[in-house]
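Running co-folding for 2-deoxy-2-amino glucitol-6-phosphate.
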Amino acid sequence: MCGIVGYTGPREAYPIIIKGLKRLEYRGYDSTGVALQNGGLNVYKKKGKVAELEESIVGVNLHSHIGIGHTRWATHGEPSDRNAHPHQSASGQLAMIHNGIIENYSQLKQELINKGYSFSSDTDTEVLLNFIEEIKKNNNCSLEEAVRVALKRVTGAYVILLMDAGDPGTIIAARKGSPLVIGVGKGEHFLGSDASPMLEYTKEVVYVNDYELAIVKPDELILKNLGNEKITPYIQKLDIELAAIEKGGYDHFMLKEIFEQPRTVYDCLRGRLDAAEGTITMSGIQQYAEQIMNANRIVMVACGTSWHAGLVAEYIFEELCRINVEVEYASEFRYRNPVINKGDVIIAISQSGETADTLVAIENAKNNGAIILGVVNVVGSSIARISHAGAYTHAGPEIGVASTKAFTAQLAVLTMIALKIGYMKGTIPQKRYMQLLNELQEIPEKVAWTLKHSDTIKALAEKYKDAHDFLYLGRGYNFPVALEGALKLKEISYIHAEGYPAAEMKHGPIALVDENLPVVFVATKDPYHEKIMSNMQEIKARKGKVISVITEGDETSASLSDDVMLVPEADEILAPMLTVIPLQLLAYYTGLAKGCDVDKPRNLAKSVTVE
Ligand code: AGP
């Protein structure tokens, strides 16, 4: 997520802004910049780190008492100097930074192009800034009024900070859907995406709410709604430390990212899924939709957790699109000299977009004529750039080494692609299509419901943390979730865990079962339910401990289990986005109970960029 900093007051602005941007680096970014008012508006920005920006402007006159700064996590337009913020308006009179996504920016951009505007970047931010300038010019009104009028036309999420060369000392800010905090000092004000840039100067803050607009001067803070009605700022005294802010108040990034999932799944669906209209819009793959629809074969290529997402996607695409799907470990696919036919579609799934095995695997496939789609979280990453097309997961930076929110976002994207292609092919009955769209829209709330039961799972972790081995079992769509649950436990708590198709037990693994072996069943109500309950009985009969992820209200499965973790009812195709949540929490709390470094587990890297 982008980082935002602003200052207006008697101090030198630049050092405050740069230090504030460094406080926000934990949010993840790929470019950065500052704008200062010193005899006009001066903007300094570049791709890369804050320290590199600093180095690039050593010796420049940076004297100013007002400024804004930004660290950009790319959503529209890949990381580059020209796409970095702040952006300047066509006249050069306005400078703006933005955190969020303007969903209707294409339409606004076309309106401006028709009026003769041109653009120096690919960003939605530059469009919004010039839209504001156009209104200011046309209506001959104040910047504040122009912002109010413009934001009534905007759909999407935003925090914006603007400066006007004609009004030195004033910063205008507005927010909807992204965070904005204003620090209140003596004759000075600070602005930030969170309180970390201002904590050392003031602990008195105002949290700006959605649809509010702030006019910020050194000695005055005016808050208004978009109806131009004044609002009395509510000043709070912070008692939080810097380290806690970076983790959003959670003890670890992994826990924060697990609990972000209602929001990140929502962000993934936003602007794409319209259940009321019955449409799925995915501009990133639109150009290749026909080729995907007519593909003889789709190959999912990935590693680790992303490979598990590919396995879920295999079941989804085969059911909804009736296309043959294979799932390949990238590390095997790249060395195996696989058969690649022209017109094959390869879907590369990767959170980092930099996994070496996946990158090389798709380079080989591309050279052999395959169409490459990237389902990637990091905008502008290598896998995203090498792909012909794709869809970003918009999960925001994932700091914890264990992949959690990226996995559910990958499932959301892959499900939308399969629904779109299946609908185009006519392989999904209209009724089922609409049922799935409506249910998919409810997933963020169902994820939030599941997270409310985290205390139960924390107690389970305490109970089973001394086991030496775990088995994770599932059937159908929940089989890949069993694999993912086992991986999470292994990599966070260092306890050996294996995932298996539940029906596979009788072919060998059941020999492992005794009173010391906890067996986790992913056993929601689906067509396999009767069969998996038989598998539970087989484990019970051999004194194994049965821990089950079950559908809320499923008393039968509960009666066969020693312990249960609950998820709401959901269609089997969508269930993995819910059933994985308790397993993420089980791994986290078990690792915590064993004193492991849950954000940075031993021997692991967040992105495996080596072979
Ligand atoms: C998952 O928790 C691990 N961190 C690891 O398996 C990871 O999923 C794998 O390295 C693939 O990474 P990617 O999604 O960035 O390509």
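Result summary
The radius of gyration is 26 Å.
The chain has a mean pLDDT of 94.
Job closed.
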